[in-house]
Amino acid sequence: MSGIVVGAVPGLSVTMATALLVSMTYAWDTKPALAMMLGVYAGGVYGGSRSAILINIPGTPAAVATGFDGYPLAQQGESGMVIGVATVQSFIGGILGLTALVVAGPLISEFALKFAPRDYFLLVAMGLSLVSRLGAKSMPRALVAASGGVLVGLVGMDPVTGEGRFTFGLPLLIGGVHFIAVLIGLFGLSEVFYQLGRIGRGTAPQIQIPEVGRILPSWASVLRFLPLSLRTSVIGVMVGALPGTGGEIAALLAYDHAKRTVRKPTRPFGQGAIEGVVAPETANNAAIGGALIPMLTLGIPGDAVTAVLIGALFIHGLRPGPLLMVEMPDLFWFIAGSYAMANVFLLIFGLMAVRPFVKLVNVNKKILMPMIALISVVGTYAIQNNIYDVFWMIGFGVLGYFMKLGDYPVGPMVLGVILGPLADINFRRAIISVRGNVPAFLGELFTNPISLILTIMLLAAFIPKLPEGGILGWLRRLLRLGKREGA
Amino acid sequence: MYGDRRRLSAHLQPAGIVALAGFVFFKASRMSNFGHDPGSPGVFPALVALVLLLCALLIWRESTAGTAAPASDGGAVRSTALIAALMAVLYGVVLRKLGFVGASFLYLAVSFMWLRATAWWKSVLLAGAAVAVTFVVFRQVFLVLLP
Known about the structure:
The complex is a heterodimer of chains A (487) and B (147).
Chain A (H helix, E strand, L loop, with lengths): L1 H7 L5 H11 L5 H26 L8 H49 L4 H18 L4 H16 L1 E2 L6 E2 L5 H4 L4 H21 L19 H6 L1 H16 L5 H15 L13 H24 L5 H12 L6 H6 L1 H24 L1 H7 L4 H20 L2 H19 L4 H24 L4 H10 L1 H12 L9 H17 L1
Antiparallel strand pairs in A: 1-2
Chain B lengths: L1 H28 L13 H23 L13 H37 L4 H22 L6
């Protein structure tokens, strides 16, 4: 339920809430802490649809596509029905994502035991390039943000030689900058400043929220959209499993898929097509299961929230990856089971508690935002009981605000903080394994089958968009041009 | 004037990134075995510096060719946001001197009143209640130490 609240209120983010929970549940046992975070994750991704449908302001980025048709439907007096559809479809997507996790997880983990350090380096580099490519308006700006994050992640004592990197001789920096402080600052505090900058000190406009009617959808409607749900769930799982991508990309791709494949939608897309709600809601929740796959099997985050979950596992003394699956398989099944329970409660609370949640959507931001700043301070201090983490958090909050103004996305920066040290250590292990012979290292990238596939995938991430009409269209234009010149 | 600011920003941002790249490369080159051992701790930061340099060039091309997407919210710094940021910094500074309860109460009360969220006396009451609830919830339920 907390997750639904967090997701439903614009200005609160699932990533921020999960990050705060990491530090706040530090004193708990690992499993209850993880269960709580998974609940917030699943509930939060779904909860974003509430405000997207009711007031056309998505509570989470993953709900952007839901508003395209959800809001027009609500305006036409169907808010109850569309919330019911969103809830049921989120549940379906979540269960299908979970199925992918339990089927693919053990298989990938088995396969990942064969990965060499160079393969991990390639995977991490691919994750950083994908998050820069897919999730931002400007790839160079996203790469700058990711690079900045990598540099922040490298601050501290080098794990191989023990020398300080970017510490400027300060003992304070020897331990590095805790990524939770960076995350809360960039996702939490910067959003507080951004929202307050938008609303200002004047009187906030009253947002009209439509009346909510019948909520529970009929079985016939669920079965009618099941083929679309299944297809968009597959999209969600595949996108979620890609390192660095998440529910928002899955939802947009699923919406696009629905537009292109549904021949007779209930209404035209953009004007209240129910399929326009089914597709993104199934995909964004299926993406959670997808994102958990690389997180648990490879130790690489599928999105920002799973990056936080990795941090949670580190804090509890666990290291996600194929060895974790071998040494503690019960933890994998516990996570799968918790996620299943989270989906069941999502369905129950989502259908039962619609009307009370409606009021939350319009909560006074001038009260909410300073409260979030307060909780951010509490959550940051709880990581290591170190006041300097709070100062870092505030500093990154200010930086995050200016990044948002300059259209430098904060997501890649957070992923850079987490993935940067992973890329560095695996790169150096790979170099050490060939005794510093760079040509041998490069040769292995192309001669080892797993490394070759990953190298191709990494290089493919940098290929610019295909010309209109694809390669064939380009060839046709080239031939026509040749004919005109020859005539 | 707005156009002049955007043109200035189009050059300043890439210049800043180039300066950062140069600084990172300089620091990386001072790390042990840099230039001799590909496994040196400076190699990876040097690669990052190279990426930053390339991105600076691409951003400069985007900005000067006019192909960059318009900045969110017009790219203008809002005074409310700046003052909120300043208040957050001051909150951090007084946290050690006044402790969590005192600093947080002051921060919330001043924020609510400055933002005109509600009447001044309600702001004070709300700040007090919020700090009390936060204290109880986080100390008793989550068992976390407060600043």
